[in-house]
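Progress note, project year one: complex with calcium ion.
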Amino acid sequence: MRTSVTTIVCAIASGLLVNSVVVAQDPGSILAWESNNYGQCNVPVPNSGFVAVAAGYFHSLGLKADGSIVAWGYNQYGQCNVPAPNSGFVAVAPGEYHSLGLKDDGSIVAWGNNDYGQCNVPAPNSGFVAVAGGGGHSLGLKANGSIVAWGRNYEGQCNVPAPNSGFVAVAAGVYHSLGLKADGSIVAWEYNVQGQCNVPAPNSGFVAVAGGGYHSLGLKADRSIVPWGYTGYGLGTVPAPNSGFVAVAGGWYHSLGLKADGSLVAWGRNYEGQCNVPAPNSGFVAVAGGGYHSLGLKAFYGDLNCDGVVNFDDINAFVLALSGQEGYQAAFPSCHRLNADCDQSGGVDFDDINAFVALLSAG
Ligand SMILES: [Ca+2]
Ligand SMILES: [Ca+2]
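Model obtained:
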């Protein structure tokens, strides 16, 4: 696995990785940048209608509003070949060389490298509400708050610590696993050689969790990010001001944070340019980090129920979005509130009403 790092560094030295990938700013489009050595930044057209993004080691994944998954980049293990029927997906997650999708019936579909059985979802394959993938293992969160883990377990990454209950989110690093509990604490387990499982005190107040390669990240309710584990490349220091974040993502050796104003902050390894967020750094609603590349999802202004179109069905969701983050997110957990920033000011408020009406009229 590490030999590929050398390959990349050599590629940079020889000037092969100088291209910057810029895509059209269609609604719900994905912006992808460096490195692009396997085409992981070449978002397939039409680059529109996306509602979620995910990044594997050298491949990329996007979930469309119609419930299909688009995958591109390194495909040595078939990690980009989404199994038929490619429909009904509500979430997508990457592994290093495999991919995972959650269906609206609560089942998980996994494909790509299966060397460790990471694509063999344990029975019963039902009742799942979230999914995550690591180096050779996979994790599924059940509606009852328990985590199911399968695949590579040499490091103990599939041994969910007791009590296996009360989880509301799940994440994975290369060889470690993370779960967020309803009480705002994070449970992290094996592999811990870089301290990626030592959640800093106080272990409370977390609202989101993410795994990097050998590091971990937690988002606090006060909108600050806490990093721990591997600290090389400056990974242990969130750029100031460490505030205003609404989402967090980990790459192998870099980290990304999404701010409430739609801008991205990236830090850590930048040899490949994975921390150079393309301008304009605004309008982002989701973010993902891969091996050495990054993905940002741009807003689809006006599409508040994230069904891929802007129409009268979005009015109720728009009103909810205006009234606050919590109520909106509870009603539309997989949608992006910043889609209500119809005047593209970086904030959601009553000034967006006229612009929303204009979008309705245009649509
Ligand atoms: Ca809509
Ligand atoms: Ca606005």
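Residues 1-24 have pLDDT under 50 and may be disordered.
Residues 3-13 form the longest helix (11 residues).
No further modelling is planned for this target in the current period.
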